[in-house]
Design goal:
The complex is a heterodimer of chains A (404) and B (86).
Chain A (H helix, E strand, L loop, with lengths): L3 E10 L2 E2 L1 H9 L5 E3 L12 E3 L6 H4 L2 H5 L3 H17 L11 E6 L5 H13 L9 H4 L4 H10 L5 E4 L5 H13 L5 E8 L4 H8 L29 E9 H7 L5 E10 L11 H12 L8 E3 L6 H15 L5 E3 L12 H15 L1 E2 L15 E2 L5 E2 L4 E8 L3 E8 L3
Parallel strand pairs in A: 5-6, 5-7, 10-11, 10-15, 11-13
Antiparallel strand pairs in A: 1-2, 1-8, 1-9, 3-4, 7-8, 9-16, 12-14, 15-16
Helix pairs in contact in A: 4-7, 8-13, 11-12
Chain B lengths: L5 H12 L16 H4 L3 H15 L5 H5 L4 H16 L1
The chains are: A alpha/beta (404), B mainly alpha (86).
Chain lengths: 404, 86
């Protein structure tokens, strides 16, 4: 069975554009969380988010594409371009039917859609732009990437909120098993428009604390929810055969995957995260003792933190595996979040360095764990597990592994 | 009565669908097909809607959609304006 290697990484995050800027910011604990000034002074309860302030669409996307896409797709196009550059690949040289795209998506083109809805109600239907038909929907980023880079192989989108990044990478791995040689995967998100913000507020999981240093502190006794952020990561998932033919270098292997769905509330059955982890480990052929770090989903909601800490404890033993939460510096990026965590996991493998979580001061008693805090931990990392839970009951776990 | 010029059309194209991809100085944009300029059917729908809004004309859908170069579009719009004024 052909191995799925990650041969290119492209990152756009609130604390850095490009792998090296993001990673060095993350290792130094530099946070991209800010007051959401564009929402003030309207009185939205959520005050803080992860803004990719230095990302200017015109720097990365030609005007023709910018006119027909949402910021979320612009982030994806930019990250993909960075990934190709990172891998040293000119996409036009790839055999078009062996080249695919599958991204995760969550809120889609919400900012573009909000603008068109405003035109609909203030000016009338004739003023809604034709591009609304393609800019809002979940597959827009996959579609635009496929068109731009001539990827005529299998293409798709997975929509499972924060779990989507892992689900997409798993699908990319599946695509390699049917003859595709390279898949553009991962995901991005741009969830900070007023429309998207209001939708998220309905979940009741956003923190209303307005201090960027205190609003998103998962596993802490004072955890009050999470804050959203924009950005994500595009990963090039390539067959080992293709990578070797190219003389490519790689970050590691997507070695295992597991996904479950939570039971109906009130059923008395346990949440599905633990089983997702176990499935992923079995798929990878690794035992819990082989795992060097777990990148937690880190919802920041007390009950969800408790459940996650419990699942990690049951699989790995309480306090037995280091836990990393670099998303404390970016917020939760939904479709971009788990993809960015996988990128961070691969960089941890590359550099033998576990990135820190910031802001957490006082672990809750029911969240006992070896959380890497404030400073990175230098240690050999060969196997990393990334966890992600999407609102509505999605659970996913992905195992990435060093490959000589 | 108003006349619809190539500059008017270029402004509408730029605002609604973004700048042309063709950059070579020797190319006459006006006579180049929309396909070669990188404007697809959605771009033309967008341009048609803007023309309707800006000039207040209500042409039959086909009148502008069937044009395949900017020069043809400008000619078609001016015919419509003459028709309206008559």
């Amino acid at each position: 069975m052909t191995r799925a290697l990650v041969t290119g990484l492209g990152v756009v995050a609130p604390n850095g554009i490009g792998v090296e800027e993001y990673w060095s910011a993350t290792l130094t604990g530099k946070s991209g969380l800010r007051r959401l000034e564009h929402l003030e002074p309207a009185g939205y309860p959520v005050r803080v988010g992860g803004v990719a302030e230095t990302f200017v669409t015109a720097d990365h996307v030609p005007a023709r594409l910018a006119a027909q896409t949402d910021r979320w797709t612009a982030l994806g196009l930019a990250a993909a371009a960075l990934a190709f550059e990172d891998a040293g690949i000119e996409p036009a040289t790839l055999p078009e039917y062996e080249f695919g795209v599958v991204t995760g998506s969550s809120s889609g083109g919400n900012e573009f859609g909000q603008r068109e809805i405003e035109r609909l109600w203030s000016q009338g239907p004739a003023f809604v732009g034709a591009y609304q038909s393609i800019a809002w929907f979940y597959a827009a980023t996959t579609g635009q990437l496929s068109i731009r880079h001539g990827a005529r192989g299998p293409c798709g989108v997975l929509v499972s909120e924060q779990a989507a990044g892992l689900d997409a990478l798993a699908e990319a791995r599946r695509m390699l098993r049917t003859g595709t040689r390279l898949v553009v995967s991962g995901g991005t998100e741009a969830p900070l428009s007023p429309y998207a913000t209001v939708c998220q507020l309905a979940s009741g999981r956003l923190s209303t604390v307005d201090d960027p240093d205190r609003c998103y502190i998962p596993f802490d006794r004072a955890a009050s929810g999470y804050v959203p952020g924009e950005g994500g990561a595009i990963l090039l998932v390539e067959s080992e055969q293709s990578a070797r033919e190219r003389g490519a270098r790689w970050y590691g292997e997507i070695a295992g995957y597991g996904a479950t769905f939570d039971p109906r509330p009130g059923s008395g059955r346990p949440p599905g995260l633990r089983r997702a982890i176990e499935l992923a480990l079995a798929d990878a052929g690794v035992s819990a003792a082989d795992v060097d770090v777990v990148f937690a989903d880190a919802a920041g909601v007390r009950e969800l933190d408790r459940q996650e800490a419990r699942a990690i404890g049951e699989v790995f033993g309480r306090g037995r595996v280091p836990v990393a939460v670099p998303k404390t510096m970016t917020g939760r990026l939904y479709a971009g979040g788990a993809a960015l965590d996988v990128a961070a996991a691969l960089l941890a493998i590359r550099d033998s360095m576990i990135p820190p979580a910031v802001g957490v001061e006082d672990l809750a008693a029911d969240c006992e764990m070896d959380l890497v805090l404030n400073v990175p931990r230098e240690t050999r990392v060969r196997v990393a597990v990334v966890l992600a839970r999407g609102y509505g009951g999605f659970n996913a776990a992905l195992v990435v592994r060093a490959v000589a | 009565m108003s006349v619809f010029t190539m500059d008017d059309l270029r402004t509408i194209m730029r605002e609604s669908a973004g700048e042309c991809e063709v950059r070579s100085p020797g190319i006459d944009i006006a006579q180049t097909s929309y396909e070669d300029l990188g404007y697809d059917s959605l771009a033309l729908l967008e341009v048609t809607a803007r023309i309707k809004q800006n000039l207040g004309v209500q042409p039959p859908d086909e009148a502008i959609a069937k044009t395949s170069t900017p020069a043809e579009t400008v000619a078609a719009v001016n015919e419509l304006l003459i028709g309206v004024a008559a």
